[in-house]
Design a protein that fits this description.
Blueprint lengths: L2 H7 L13 H10 L13 E6 H16 L19 H15 L7 H12 L6 E8 L4 H20 L3 E5 L6 H8 L5 E10 L17 H4 L6
Antiparallel strand pairs: 1-2, 2-4, 3-4
The structure holds flavin mononucleotide.
The site of flavin mononucleotide has 12 residues, from β3.
Length: about 220
Amino acid sequence: MDVRQALERRVSIRAFRPDPVSRETVVDILSTARRAPSGGNFQPWRVFVLAGSELARFTDIVVQRFEAGIAEPPEYQFYPKGVGEPYRTRRREAGDTRYAAMGSKTPTPEILRELQLRNCRFFGAPVGLIFCIDRRLDRAQWADMGIYLQSVMLLAADHGLDTCPQGFWTNWHETIAAFFSLPPELMVYCGMSLGYRDPADPLCVTSTARADLAEFAEIRGF
Ligand SMILES: Cc1cc2nc3c(=O)[nH]c(=O)nc-3n(C[C@H](O)[C@H](O)[C@H](O)COP(=O)(O)O)c2cc1C
């Protein structure tokens, strides 16, 4: 698979089959992604990987806390408060495709709860990843993290695997910190589901639009 094919194949998948992914495959993906560039070669990424009984133990804790109505304070605001256009509409449209796949025109409390629960379970994926960053680092290093994340997702695609990045996990920093005994300098950047898609589930693939090139690029001098 070439880079273009991997880019075109990668979409956020929100329904996985339980088929396992081998440790070797995960190691190959995470270690090949190390070639991602970073300013000053900081390599700011830290990754915690869960599978099998450890994944079940972790997600059971999170689901239990979610069901008990516990809300942990997120360490950072994932979406800026009161963000205007075009972001508001883009976010709403992306959400609408999910609600439609779940049989609803609007985000009813039941649909939102179901989506949260699916996030809690890494959408049924056999591997869950938590990406952390040293809280002393700043915006440039957060961008480096994004490059690493995309590298992981493209390499997963190359293995015939699917992914869903999950900012959702920023809501569970306390649980994650306790589960992994995170050193105080580490904070959760986001999580990711990894596995094989389940096309039988209507939520599996929800296609999202992209703005035209002319809306975000200015090209001169050719
Ligand atoms: C950093 C990051 C965090 C995300 N967090 C979530 C999440 O918590 N839950 C979710 O269902 N999708 C999440 N997404 C997926 C986005 O909704 C998705 O990338 C976007 O709608 C574009 O769709 P596509 O990935 O299918 O191309 C996240 C994506 C990124 C890059």
